């Protein structure tokens, strides 16, 4: 039976966060609010980890294992266009990715576990800053989170409007992609548009490179692997009657394993340098790693699947779902400790395209899944740390 008081509390928390969004490393009011709620629950609370991060701990019994539950707190620098009663009060910032819901969900899980104390061990509630730029988890790691507040495993979730509400999806291995950014600078020799033979055309060279990069996914990677190479910006110093001297291509790549990340970078560099050399142009190639892939540990997927089935039923749990090629800062945590990331379905319509997508200026978290998420986290701890 639905706990009306609990559901209303979750909604109140979530809508407060939605009304007061703060972007990466600026989550001061958010973290203070979280810390007060957790302190009022009687938890041991530590602030300012990795900037504005918060960690709270709850120990029950004499169990020695420690499990981390993580939520991200930051909003996006985006102007909200919806007309909600609790719309953003911070102009140009909004919770367009649902981190307001993630934070409220984890607070709800904390409340349930404080009340029930139906486990044996320690739970750490981790509220992470700056997920959107992919810097928050590393900031917490650099600040010594795993030394000061060690954990054996870590779990997190993300709302998913592209799957039906109340469903739980996960998978072993890569569930969300890395994000790597690149800049390709092509230096040729400009000339009058009527006399291309006396110059070195960097724009034609750039065109060949853009097409050549698509062979990485189609000819260098196993077709069963997930790879995206996208050129998203093209800049030149030319005008309508002059062939440019310089062209710059920007874009990003996505993949689900470290090995594929490395292959993409190596092949990109070879393609760019080879085509430039063939055309007599010079090439500068920059490649940066922004997000690690989110790679679930199989033993932890089994825990998640069991907990999920206990809460929403076996028919609403998919433990071998398709990966999502967006990126998640949670992946960095999984390079240090075992864990699992989960999609919590929040789509009111079974047809994905009918639901407002993430990172949309009209997005609003589906409050009907808050209690499901909190119960799932609490059940995960009960399953993982049995009495």
Automatic annotation (TrEMBL):
Pfam family, one: Peptidase_M20
Ranges where the Peptidase M20 dimerisation domain occurs: 182-273
PANTHER family: METALLOPEPTIDASE, PUTATIVE (AFU_ORTHOLOGUE AFUA_6G09600)-RELATED, PEPTIDASE M20 FAMILY MEMBER
Name listed for the protein in its UniProt record: M20 family metallopeptidase
Native source species: Clostridium aestuarii
Tree of life domain: Bacteria
């Amino acid at each position: 039976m639905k706990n009306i008081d609990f559901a209303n509390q979750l909604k109140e928390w979530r809508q407060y966060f939605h009304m007061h969004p703060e972007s990466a490393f600026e989550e001061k009011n958010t973290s203070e609010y979280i810390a007060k709620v957790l302190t009022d629950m009687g938890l041991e609370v530590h602030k300012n980890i990795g900037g504005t991060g918060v960690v709270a701990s709850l120990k029950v019994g004499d169990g020695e294992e420690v499990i981390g539950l993580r939520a991200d707190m930051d909003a996006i620098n985006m102007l909200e266009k919806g007309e909600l009663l609790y719309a953003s009060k911070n102009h140009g910032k909004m919770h367009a990715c649902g981190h307001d819901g993630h934070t409220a969900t984890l607070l709800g899980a904390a409340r349930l576990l404080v009340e029930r104390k139906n486990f044996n061990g320690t739970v750490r509630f981790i509220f992470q800053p700056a997920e959107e730029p992919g810097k928050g988890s590393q900031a917490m790691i650099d600040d010594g989170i795993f030394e000061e507040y060690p954990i054996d495993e870590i779990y997190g979730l993300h709302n998913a409007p592209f799957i039906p509400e109340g469903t739980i999806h996960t998978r072993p291995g890569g569930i969300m992609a890395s994000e790597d950014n690149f800049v390709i600078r092509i230096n040729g020799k400009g000339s009058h548009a009527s006399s291309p033979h006396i110059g070195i055309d960097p724009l034609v060279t750039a065109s060949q490179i853009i097409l050549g990069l698509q062979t990485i996914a189609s000819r260098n990677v196993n077709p069963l692997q997930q790879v995206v190479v996208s050129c998203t910006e093209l800049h030149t110093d030319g005008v309508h009657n002059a062939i440019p001297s310089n062209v710059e291509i920007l874009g990003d790549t996505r993949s689900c394993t470290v090995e594929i990340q490395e292959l993409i970078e190596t092949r990109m560099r070879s393609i760019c340098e080879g085509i430039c050399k063939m055309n007599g142009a010079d090439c500068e190639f920059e490649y940066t790693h922004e997000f690690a892939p989110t790679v679930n540990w199989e033993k932890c997927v089994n825990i998640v699947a069991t907990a999920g089935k206990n809460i929403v039923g076996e028919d609403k749990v998919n433990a071998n779902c398709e990966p999502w090629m967006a990126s998640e800062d949670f992946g960095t945590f999984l390079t240090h400790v075992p864990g699992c990331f989960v999609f919590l379905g929040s789509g009111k319509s079974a047809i994905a395209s009918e639901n407002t997508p993430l990172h949309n200026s009209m997005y609003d978290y589906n409050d009907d899944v808050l209690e499901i998420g909190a119960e799932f986290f609490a059940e995960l701890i009960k399953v993982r740390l049995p009495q």
